């Protein structure tokens, strides 16, 4: 083609070609990447198709729902799904291809099938459940042992949520007067930030896990799709790996999220969670009182039995004791008799021995020895036993039985010992 075209002319050719090739409406599946409403009531979207990895985008196109149609489509979608159109949803739209010289190609959406979105949500939910089961973690949190009295509670919720307020009020005003330690770890409980916010809160709790007995995830009521935020694989996996029991009270009477299914226990509402915790404390108290009653009763029986045994033993011991006392009296009397008899014999023997010894001592009396003709010689008051103990010229005394003789040594003669 040798003819030159202006840019506008080329754009018109493209537009006419598209309208010729794609003349009617088409049902198209896509995911909402961005969505906004302008002041005129028109709804502008960015639609994408992702690769199987659910991350990388393989196709993208702009879409618009004009205000006169958007009011109907929006109302129908919300009534059927229980949720509003939002980023991250997969939708099935009935649209016409439109091309504009300045804004390029886009889809003018005429209708949205809400049944498709509900089916996609259910499919994604089943995929998450199946993945957790295949990984063998689905029941891990349920297998943990809960404290007998869960008094230290970490709560994941929005501080402004009505469900959180209901939970705290119900827990603190219990009729039994139980007290609980509650720490709030704030998180978004709906919207696109829910997944990251809740898992971040769980990570913060895990850093001080020793402070808590259980984790409670609570929020108020909401639409069916609000509940779908807790069908997140990431949140559910964090719950399965948590080292202490997790209790959920997400606020739906009919349906359970995947997070509910993997938690240690699931209650329908925040107040029901509070009731369970209060009930656990009450059951523990009742068990203690029951055990105390059993101990008292058993102890009373033991005491009664002991008293009976002691009384029986007392009645049996009285005659036995009397017999033993009589026997011991007899034995002691015999011992006393033997001791007395033996003592008399010993005294007589000792008297004889003393008399004999007295006679022997009497024979050794110096005076009696002197009377038999023996003498005792001394020098300076010291008895002389040998001639060698004297010197010539010394004055010595010789004692006789009838007096003392004083003499002076003039000569000594010492006997020489014979050699053996």
Describe it.
The chain is an alpha/beta fold and 420 residues long. It folds into three domains: 106 residues, OB fold (Dihydrolipoamide Acetyltransferase, E2P) (Beta Barrel); 147 residues, Hypothetical protein af1403, domain 2 (Rossmann fold), CATH 3.40.50.10550; 41 residues, no CATH class. A five-stranded mixed β-barrel has the order 1-2-3-5-4. The protein has a five-stranded parallel sheet with strand order 7-6-8-9-10. It has a four-stranded antiparallel sheet with strand order 12-11-13-14, with no helix packed on it. A hairpin with a 5-residue loop joins strand 1 and strand 2. Helix 4 runs parallel beside helix 9 and helix 5 runs parallel beside helix 7. The longest helix is centred in the C-terminal third of the chain and has 94 residues.
> What shape does the CA trace take?
elongated
The biggest beta sheet is recorded as: 5 strands, mixed, barrel
The total of helices stands at 10
Q: In terms of structural class, how would the helical and strand content be classed?
A: alpha/beta
| Distance linking N and C termini | 172 Å
For this structure, the CATH topology of the largest domain is Rossmann fold
Our Rg estimate from Cα atoms comes to 60 Å
Weakly predicted, low-confidence segments: none
Give the helix/strand layout.
Elements: H1 7-21, E1 26-37, E2 43-50, E3 57-65, H2 67-81, E4 90-100, E5 104-112, H3 114-134, E6 152-157, H4 162-172, E7 181-186, H5 194-206, E8 214-218, H6 224-228, H7 233-241, E9 246-249, H8 258-262, E10 265-266, H9 270-363, H10 366-371, E11 376-379, E12 382-383, E13 395-400, E14 403-408
Parallel strand pairs: 3-5, 6-7, 6-8, 8-9, 9-10
Antiparallel strand pairs: 1-2, 1-4, 2-3, 4-5, 11-12, 11-13, 13-14
Helix pairs in contact: 2-3, 4-9, 5-7
